[in-house]
TrEMBL record:
Signal peptide: none annotated. The lineage of its organism: Bacteria, Bacillati, Bacillota, Bacilli, Bacillales. It comes from the Bacteria. Residues 6-74 form the HTH gntR-type domain. The keyword Nucleotidyltransferase does not apply. GO terms for molecular function: DNA binding; DNA-binding transcription factor activity. The keyword Electron transport does not apply. InterPro entries: Tscrpt_reg_HTH_GntR, WH-like_DNA-bd_sf, WH_DNA-bd_sf. Keywords: DNA-binding, Transcription, Transcription regulation. This is HTH gntR-type domain-containing protein. Coiled coil: none annotated.
Amino acid sequence: MTSASPKLFTEIVRQLRQLIEQERIPIGGKLPSERELAERLEVGRSTIREALRSLELLGLIETRRGEGTFLADFRNHKLVEILATFILKDTKSTIDIHSTRQALEKQAIHEVVEGKSASLSVLKNALVTTDDIQQEWFLKELVIASGNRLSMKIWLLLNEYSSRPFRTEMTEEDRSHWLELIESIEAGNSQQAQLQLAAWEQRLRGELDR
């Protein structure tokens, strides 16, 4: 039986490791362009761009406008190493990943309420005007809006190892639900927003079990 292909995120990390070792790229050295990475991995540039954004948020790379993408202190970055060793071979590991990610999302809601983040207007506008939005996009942007960089880095890693199928396109019901959640956050009601998040996940799991 052929094993499943690695997720794009971990594949890019592997490619970066090879670049460091084979081409001896120093810390601060320039990485290949989006086009070159897309050709090497045989994926679209938009996919590479999104993956690189996640890597930048994790602190693994640095993008400089007009100059390119540069290597951060990747060899000393431990978050990737820690989670990469947490192999999802049993149900308990999967549950742990799910529970931790869920806790981070709930905490993000609380922190956005406390911080009165201006990013909510961007989220709301995207929900109303953009057609092709994936379910996980909203969750990621919500965690980013919290401003908690450690939570954000851990969530991004958990997202790559999570088995939750949030990579499908949003339905109109999803959009309506998220807009109501944003309204609760704007009203300062973090508890209501957290309940709405839990209700959405429960509905999604119910649909998958049918």
